[in-house]
Design goal:
mainly alpha, 176 residues, 9 helices, 0% strand
Length: 176
């Protein structure tokens, strides 16, 4: 993302959503981080100035829905960068909350399937993806609990699956 993009967001609120969305799917951690920073700025400004960001919510929903179908490395990068946005009110909206939890659960199931298929060659990207997902799920679960927000059943199911994961690192993450 360029400085012009940030300037357009802050000064004109002319949001280049296509450029932001493209940053997520590049697989480049820097581009993903910059895209999440842009979305974070958008949602921060929308909360502060009470702006309508329906298009931003729709774009975030599109990214969230596609998580289970993304390349493992791209998905892992998104897990790592999205955790910084979990405190935003956007993640407390019912539609985002339900979609997000359902996508996390499906992503975990897909990763476990991939892990089972790669039994001879332990793929580090799968293990890293599951670990990153466990950190994100635990953080989101805690965030919802702290704000007295109802925990979706998909997130509860995911936490239970993570508590029984074969990886001690993942299980320990759930116990903290």
């Amino acid at each position: 993302m360029t400085l012009q993009t940030v300037d357009a967001i802050i000064n004109n609120f002319n949001v280049p959503y296509n450029e932001i969305t493209h940053g997520f799917i590049t697989g480049n951690f820097v581009s993903q981080s910059q895209s999440f920073s842009a979305l974070n700025i958008i949602f921060y400004l929308s909360e502060w100035f009470k702006l309508d960001v329906k298009l931003g919510i729709d774009k975030l929903n599109q990214i969230i829905v596609s998580l289970p179908f993304m390349d493992m490395k791209i998905c892992t990068g998104i897990f790592k960068t999205i955790s910084g946005m979990l405190g935003r009110s956007i993640f407390k909206y019912q539609s985002i909350k339900n979609t997000f939890c359902k996508s996390l659960l499906q992503s975990y199931r897909n990763m476990k399937y991939q892990e089972e298929m790669d039994t001879r060659f332990r793929d580090w990207s799968t293990l890293e993806g599951i670990y990153s997902l466990s950190i994100l799920a635990k953080k989101y679960y805690t965030e919802l609990q702290l704000n007295n927000i109802e925990i979706p059943i998909d997130l509860t199911d995911l936490i239970e699956l993570l508590k029984r994961d074969v990886s001690p690192e993942v299980r320990n993450q759930m116990e903290e």
